């Protein structure tokens, strides 16, 4: 894995946004895999700023998001659809029909998962996948123990993930227990991968993912086998890692 060290969150965001911009400029009709969560917010802010300055054009870009809660309407403020609209899609000239997020309200989960895989394939695969990392090493909602061969699937969220995301919901009952996620295989098929990490609370899991044994117990550890994966992380997240 390549490592780009950033001073702090803003620097991490700028450095990762730079790699994404380069991808869009080199191949305007590219396919981006996108993540939600707190870590990529600054990246989307930076991309939006460069778009406003006239330096970036999203008109031919296609996107596939990693995941979505099951049972949340698109209009729910905690849906990942809402998040993407708020942080990127409504702010740049991306074509709505070229943005893809798993449908949290799908009637037939099996069909919805297959259809998502098919859509990624029809788009020609993902050129650049942006990832965050969970405290338990999850990427997307691929929780510890999930087979690395998995493609898009429906998951039961683990207690650790439920706790981490609990702060975003007004009550325990409101919080979805299941989610759709791209599988590790979808992620590994991306041509380039960027793994973002910020803050001391990510230091231990980031080190384990980068240097620990490759095991489904730490889903992100598989990224060591990808031939174009770059960690873009700030000093705190890299504080336990020695180059
Ligand atoms: C979000 C996603 C998750 C997050 C991870 C880290 O689409 O797939 O794997 O990247 O939970 O979340 P934050 O960035 O909030 O720490």
Helicity, in percent?
25-40%
Low-pLDDT parts are none
Shape: globular
The CATH topology is given as: Rossmann fold
**Tally of individual helices:** 7
Bound molecules: fructose -6-phosphate
Structural class: alpha/beta
Could you state the order of secondary-structure elements as H and E? EHEHEEHEHEEHEHEHE
Q: Distance between the terminal alpha carbons, to the nearest Å? A: 11 Å
Calculate Rg over CA atoms. 17 Å
Q: Which strand order do you get reading across the main beta sheet?
A: 1-10-9-6-2-3-5
What does the largest sheet look like? 7 strands, parallel
Into which percentage range does the β-strand content fall?
Answer: 15-25%
Can you summarize this structure?
Helices cover 31% and strands 17% of the residues. The radius of gyration is 17 Å and the shape is globular.
What does this protein look like?
By secondary structure, the protein is an alpha/beta fold. The protein has a single domain, classed as Rossmann fold. Helix content is 31%, strand content 17%. It is built from 7 helices and 10 strands. The protein has helices spanning 9-26, 41-52, 80-89, 109-122, 159-166, 184-188, 203-211, and strands at residues 2-6, 31-34, 62-65, 67-69, 99-100, 128-131, 153-156, 178-181, 192-197, 229-234. A 7-stranded parallel beta sheet has the order 1-10-9-6-2-3-5, with helices on one face. A 3-stranded antiparallel beta sheet has the order 4-8-7, covered by helices on one side. Helix 7 (203-211) links the parallel strand 9 and strand 10. The longest helix has 18 residues, at 9-26. It is globular. The model has no long low-confidence stretch (mean pLDDT 96). Bound molecules: fructose -6-phosphate. Fructose -6-phosphate binds at residues 35-39, 66-67, 132-134, 138-140.
């Amino acid at each position: 894995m390549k490592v780009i060290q950033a001073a702090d969150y803003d620097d991490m965001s700028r450095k990762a946004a730079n790699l994404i911009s380069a991808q869009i400029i080199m191949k305007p009709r590219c396919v981006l895999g996108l993540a939600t969560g707190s870590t990529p917010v600054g990246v989307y802010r930076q991309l939006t700023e460069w778009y406003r300055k006239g330096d970036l054009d999203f008109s031919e870009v296609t996107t596939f998001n990693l995941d979505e809660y099951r049972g949340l309407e698109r209009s729910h403020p905690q849906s990942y659809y809402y998040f993407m609209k708020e942080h990127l899609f409504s702010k740049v000239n991306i074509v709505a029909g070229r943005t893809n997020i798993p449908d949290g309200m799908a009637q037939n989960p099996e069909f919805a998962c297959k259809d998502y895989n098919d859509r990624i394939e029809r788009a020609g695969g993902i050129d650049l996948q942006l990832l965050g990392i969970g405290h338990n090493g999850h990427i997307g909602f691929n929780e510890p123990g999930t087979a690395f061969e998995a493609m898009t699937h429906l998951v039961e969220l683990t207690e650790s993930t439920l706790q981490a995301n609990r702060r975003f919901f007004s009550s325990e009952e409101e919080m979805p227990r299941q989610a759709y996620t791209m599988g590790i295989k979808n992620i590994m098929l991306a041509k380039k991968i960027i793994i973002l990490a910020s803050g001391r609370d990510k230091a231990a899991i980031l080190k384990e993912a980068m240097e620990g044994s490759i095991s489904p117990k730490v889903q992100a550890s598989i990224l060591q086998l990808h031939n174009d994966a770059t960690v873009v992380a700030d000093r705190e997240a890299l504080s336990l890692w020695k180059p």
